[in-house]
Amino acid sequence: MSRLSSLVLTLSVAGFPALAQSVTGDEAASLLFAPAPAAVEIDGQGVLAKDEAKMLAMVAQDQPYYAAIAISPDEGLMSEATIAAANHHTIEAASAAALGECNAKKKGAADCVIVAFVRPDGWEARPLQLSMAATQDFANYSGGALAISAATGAWGMGGSADEAVAACVAKQEAATDCTVAIAD
Known about the structure:
By secondary structure, the protein is of the alpha+beta class. The protein has helices at 2-5, 25-31, 50-60, 91-105, 132-138, 161-171; strands at 8-9, 38-42, 67-71, 83-85, 113-120, 145-148, 155-158, 179-183. The protein is elongated.
């Protein structure tokens, strides 16, 4: 369990489309999920034993949404290639990050697979989704703008769109795709 508890949390992935348009702070407040415990979905992909799936579910519930956990089918759950990518703005971004890092680290021939997802409790697709940390930070939003990086999960707030984008990029150097998601 200690190996699994120390899964590497990665926050880098490239190539995600930017948010089509921003919403207002009031609109965002009605769209965002509560920054509360998340729901875990285990999909063992036929590569996890029942006890591994149970253990993974216990560990995954402590990950901030949106998260995905990838494993190398040839190496199993307890390998160096097992990757949890957490605190992204969508499950797709978390999945791409986890798969990319897992495939880079795997030693086996088979491509990595996603075996767990972490989403907000009661999740349903919405026009705006923020990571758990960005959702928590939104509580301090009092106008201006909030920018996000779809690729990395980074975010930043500022008094203007330019300040929010700069704050987003400053959070993570790889966040070169920061776009304004919320603006008043």
